[in-house]
Amino acid sequence: MRLSLSWSWLLALTASSAHATLRVDGRLDEAEWRSASVLPPMVTVSPWTSAEPEYRTEVRYLARPDGLYLGFRNEQPPETRLNRAHIRDAFSESDFNEVAVDFDGRGVIAYDFFVSSSNSVRDGVWFNEREINGDWDGSWEHATHADDRAWYSEIRIPWEVAPMVRTEDGQRRIGLYVSRWVMGRYQRYAFPNIRPLQRFISVFAPVTVPDFDQPVFHATPYATVIHDNLRGEAEADAGVDLFWRPRSDQQLTATVNPDFGQVESDELVVNFSAVETLRSDKRPFFTENQGLFDLRGTEDLRLVHTRRIGAAPDRGLEGASELLGAAKYMGVGEQFDYGVFLAAEEDGQEARGRDYAVTRLRWHDNGHALGLLATRARRPSLEREARVEALDLGLSLAPELRLESMLMSSEAAERDRGGWLRLRYAPQRTWNNSLELTRYGRDFDVNDLGYQRRPDLSKLRFESMLDVNGFAPESPSSNRSLSAVLELAENTAGLRLPGLAALGWREDFRSSASLGLYWRRETSGTDDRLTRGHGELALAARDSVELIYRSTQSGSWRYAAGMRRFQEGLGGWARELSFGPSYTYSPELGLGLRLAWLNSADWLIWRAGERVDQYERELVTATANLVAQWQDRHELRASFQWLGLRAEAFQGWRVADRRLAPLDEAGQDFSFADLAFQIRYRYAMSPVTDLFLVYGRGGQWQDGEHQAYARLFETSLSEPEADSLLVKWRHRF
Questions:
Q1: What is the Cα 351 distance to its own chain's centre?
Q2: 65-98: string of b/e by CB count within 10 Å (b at 16+)?
Q3: One-character DSSP codes across 543-582
Q4: What is the pLDDT of residue 685?
Q5: Please, which contacts does 467-473 make with residues 24 or more away whose CB atoms are closer than 8 Å?
Q6: CB count, 10 Å around CB of 547?
Q7: Can you tell me the mean pLDDT for 393-403?
Q8: How confident is residue 61, by pLDDT bands cut at 50, 70 and 90?
């Protein structure tokens, strides 16, 4: 084992040094680029006219031992370019290039890479033909450059970014998709002529490149020092992530004392409902090469939700659980993929550590797929062991018709079953439809390791989306999107739950502005989750209408504004206003703001047992994000989030026989504030070395009185629950 690792490490270093002459700097001026292969021209896909683009794009590609290189030359006058920095994985309001690669050409999974003209990035993983997981953050190189005629982007995607099927003839047949957004025109160009509305991954352009199947070994140690400013204490930690690919179709990653020091802050959410907030995971080990285990379903179902690992312990007041380590092994073949995923937590002050195990097997052939997944979560402090087994199926019945389904079984406190089926039908490139059937048993539960919104559900959902193109050149409109949704639901006892009917309209203008109008109605039905098992409540139908406008993307200033009027509680009306301006001082410096105000005369929340209280509420939220990038090595991000909630009780109720009986006492007024402030500086010392300095401050504050917003803001700022400074260093050998 030691000899094998040393040999792998030596080969990886040798390959890197031997081919270091091709520098990723965005200039595309090396001799290798002049002899590189050139992809066919792009066509306009948004709006979907298939016409020759207004601006020419040339895309070249090279396959080398250290990765797949792509170079874009984007012709465009400087005065029409939009060049704005943004945080990683945010939707870019800048011109950008995209590359999606199916490394095996099988139409099973593809990896997506975006580079904006400001050299900001986002990435993700495509699966199930046209679904994307944006949590994935890969390790790849990128750079941009500009002159008077064009702007350029250069991308290097290391071969070890994903496991790949071994080849026999030294040639790798990949699937490739490239696109370009011109935000000032709100136009998208692409090759091949496809969009993720119908078939997507399976119709990427086939490209043959040399195969470089060589062993790779990486060790990535890290060290952190965190100073708690509230307690006046400092804590140091260190660990290492290991990556070993003995050959292209096998991959082992492991971590000892994992690097889970967060440098990303979660979005603040006020949630008093019975449905848990679904949060994404940005921890490197749990996002890289996780696609094989990322099995999802209807109703936001996830069978492996990695935020469970390292979450708050089952007992005690600790905010998070420390991890001993974790490991993933994956293998891919022409028709079979397989993998094992393990993680174990340390014992806490009051709770014993949990451990998790996932096994996965998947068969695929010519657009069809059949898979098995089994998970186990052992929670010794609760004397609980939860198991889930799933059988997933995907069939391409015709070019325009695809069937996907999953059958599942869970065993925790009780054993139960669940399943769903989805038909996707896209008779035209601009029109797609889906029909979903869902049934989750009363005791079906995957939440020990996965995520589900609720059990005890039978639902039928139909959704249709249509893009209208072909507007006359003199028309101000470039694209029109229409959508319709219909849902019918009941629980397994046959009790009818609120259904849904919704219509949407969005107009995209040639100026790059857009206007959207959305209406939805929740039909009458019974809420069986509000009281957390203490009774059901019959609700009348409730309506909602929303108007959203986004200004033109050109210029330094742009904004989005929204108005929403909706019914909640027992049918009372609420209103919400939002305004989000953003300003670009320079391509390297940008500021975004968002302010929102919500007022409701009928907010119904559960208090305890059969009791629910009715409130008048007012909610104010404010967010600000500053992004500064310079010299391609330095990045400064400052984010501020604050929300203040004031709730005035006016009636207490008891739920009985699906109706509300008034109580003599109203509930208690309360106020709530939440604050999150972070300044993060990142210095990319080299493509494989990062230094982070992160200052964070925030926390929640609640009072049993109706406080003024100034008081809420002052208290949340002056009485934080967390105030810390983090220094983190990571280097990959």
A1: 31
A2: ebbbbbbbbbebeeeebbbbbbbbbbebbbbbbb
A3: EEEEEEEE--S-SSEEEEEEEEEEEETTTEEEEEEEEEEE
A4: 84
A5: 467/47, 467/48, 467/197, 467/430, 467/431, 468/430, 469/47, 469/48, 469/49, 469/430, 470/47, 470/49, 471/47
A6: 13
A7: 90
A8: very high
What is the spatial distance between Cα 187 and Cα 209, in angstroms, rounded to a whole number? 30
Q: Which of 694, 607, 596 is nearest to 643 (CA)?
A: 596
Please give the helix or strand (H or E) that residue 368 lies within, else none. Answer: strand 368-379
CA distances, 232 to each of 224, 307, 319, 722 (Å): 17, 29, 18, 12
Q: How confident is the model at residue 260 (pLDDT cuts 50, 70, 90)?
A: low
Say how far apart CA 244 and CA 254 lie, in whole Å: 9
Strands (E), 128-232: 131-133, 141-146, 150-157, 171-182, 187-191, 205-210, 216-228
Q: Tokens 């002049």 belong to which residue? A: 34
Judging by DSSP bridges, how do beta strands 250-256 and 323-332 pair with one another? antiparallel
Percent of the chain with pLDDT over 70: 96
Question: Which token pair is 397?
Answer: 């019945």
Q: What are phi and psi of 2, to 5 degrees?
A: -65, -40
On the question of a cis peptide bond just before residue 476, with omega within 30 degrees of 0, the verdict is no
Please state, as a whole number, how many other Cβ atoms lie within 10 Å of the Cβ of residue 668: 15
Are the C-beta atoms of residues 465 and 432 closer than 8 Å to each other?
yes
Element (H, E) at 17: helix 2-18
DSSP 285: H
Q: Residue 293 in contact with residue 360, Cβ under 8 Å?
A: yes
Residues 93, 98, 102: CA angle, nearest 5 degrees: 145
CA angle 435, 436, 438 (to 5 degrees): 160
Tokens, residue 671: 């106020």
The answer to whether 391 and 407 have CB atoms below 8 angstroms apart is yes
Backbone angles phi, psi at 458, to 5 degrees: -130, 125
| Rounded Cα distance, 478 and 552, in Å | 13
Amino acid at 177: Y
Q: Which residue in 579, 607, 581 sits closest to 668, CA to CA?
A: 607
Dist CA 263 CA 470 (whole Å): 45
Least confident segment among 390-394, 503-507, 526-530, 700-704: 700-704
Residues 22, 150: contact at Cβ < 8 Å?
Answer: no
Residue with tokens 């209280």: 613
Distance between CA 235 and CA 325 in Å, rounded? Answer: 19
Query: 203-254 pLDDT, tens per residue?
Result: 999 999 999 988 999 898 989 999 999 999 998 988 898 999 999 899 999 9
Burial (CB count within 10 angstroms: exposed 0-12, middle 13-18, buried 19+), residue 174: buried
Residue 359: enclosing H or E segment and its boundaries?
strand 355-365
Q: Report how far residue 286's alpha carbon sits from residue 307's, in angstroms, rounded to the nearest whole number.
A: 9
How many whole angstroms separate alpha carbon 692 and alpha carbon 682? 5
3-class DSSP state for residue 176? strand
Angle at alpha carbon of residue 213, lines to 210 and 217, rounded to 5°: 135
Q: For the purposes of burial, counting CB atoms within 10 Å of the CB of 662, is it exposed (0-12), middle (13-18) or buried (19 or more)? A: exposed
Check if the beta carbon of residue 239 is closer than 8 Å to that of residue 222: yes
The whole model's pTM is what?
0.89
